[in-house]
Amino acid sequence: MCGIAGFSGRFDAALLDRMNDAMAHRGPDDAGTSFDVAAGVGLAHRRLSIIDLSPRGHQPMADVTGTVAIVYNGEIYNYRELRDELVADGYGFRSDCDTEILLNLYLRDGDKMMDRLNGIYAFAIHDSRDDSLFVVRDGFGVKPLYWAQTPNGFVFASEIKALLQERSISRELDHECVRHHLLYLWTPSPLTMLKAVRKLEPGHALRVRDGRVEKHWKFYELPYEQPFVDWPKGDAIVQVRKALTRAVERQLVADVPVGAFLSGGLDSSAVVALAQRAMGTEKLQCFTIGFRDPRAEVEGMAEDLPYAQRVAKHLDVDLHTIYVGPEMVDELPNMVFHLDEPQADPAPINALFISRLAREHGIKVLLSGAGGDDVFTGYRRHRALTVERYWDWLPLSARRSLAFAAKHVRPSNEFQRRVSKAFRYAHLEGDARLASYFQWIDAEQLVPVFHPRLRDEFAHAERSPVLSALDALPPNVPPLNRMLYVETKFFLADHNLNYVDKVSMANGVEVRVPLLDPDLVSLVARLPLDYKQRGNTGKWVLRRAMEPYLPREVLYRGKTGFGAPLRNWLRSELAPLVDELLSDEAIARRGLFDPRGVRTLVGADRGRRMDASYTIFSMMCIELWCRMFVDRPTPETV
Hints:
By secondary structure, the protein is of the alpha+beta class.
């Protein structure tokens, strides 16, 4: 796990040093740059040493012939098998790093090399034979990669704060992206808040030459077009258990100690159980957070700590806990800065504290349960989608009445909020209704919040990236798998995986995600739908697969949030910050929102006439982010 950056075009070597300095937290163990002046290609790297801790793992790294050079962020879990294969084919090695595997695999297989990789990665290879750059991001987007086309050429980096060390990159905001952020709380790939900066989509690659992108293509597609397998339930349970066990064992490979997140939920508990079995007598070091604020339960977030402690005792692992309270709000600016994108969710603060605790205990690698809800089901919207059949038969007029009533439910408690959200879009059809489950606020309610100039722009907005992605799926893919496709393509990559990577790497900690092993994901995508969501029970097959290893009260506990009592925070600890960031003066200066519309929205939320807390938080994060990334010559915290 590292930080990478580089360019192709008319840039100077000093830019490489500035980019490396901006992402020093990603690689505290080593740093390096290379600059081929004649080719106009520069590479920069910050190293977090995980495999082969010796200087032989230094990057940028060239193959033994000096033909190609690489900067790489990630881990290839099947690198030992690939190394044996490449040695048999006559390729030479000078290190024991998985990095050198990528160089030789590229020399042998070229653009097709990704078909052989099992891992998480973002890398760039400079091919001296034609002075091109080959830039790649893994299929699930576990590792981040941003790029920009500038008047001087092409530039890329693991983080936007490193990319913006190139001062010619325009800071013009992408207004459509602002709208998406308020709708979804995250920014769908390939968009970012800046028009000039794009995310390389998961499973995509670029070929760059002479400072220009010559080719941009997709090499991996999420496996939801596959036919279902007709397996008996018992066979499916066994196959899932075997596939997950292999995934966890693969991802334990490291030359440094490996620990794990342990929230007490099914996903992290499953990973910890299988990791401890693979480690034998060596105790796995696990980390969790204790959040003692009675307001959390009011917002539907049960206390996780007792479950984490129950699992730790059951599996005989060491559990380290960091206790936090409302003072967490002080970390908000730090969170926004490290995320690189203004994500409107307090959950990254939890992950920031946990990864900090792990590093204090000498742990550089953490296993995570991220992806379980997106692959096996687990979110409330999956359950809501499957129960649509009980009311979907109603005529359109009745569904319109249902939607109208839902929009006027006073959201005074968690149950009423969920009922309102479940039926708010009952009048929509097909993919439009499915996509609406990802919205946090009705698009119509946002209209008065935006500046009048932006309202005119949005009247001619292009089709949502979420709907466009669904258009690409064959019509015979059933609704639940269509939702899981969007879940994995956008919500997982652009929200969960982004914040997990950014806040963990802010502390020099690598996070691995066994539940996103490509073999496991492909297997689960082919299972019958009721093996995943069975009535009110999500992750049915995963729960059954883990029955031999985990207590029943952990296996079958309900879904809880991994966050903080944001709604209460906005009306108490964060109220002064709301008033400052969303003041008439601040709004007028930024030019994105309408002061009167924002005042009305905040007043309705504080009066509990509507639930707009996450929309308000989204606007706050956007303003904070702009002060750090737009208003300053190079990104800085405020």
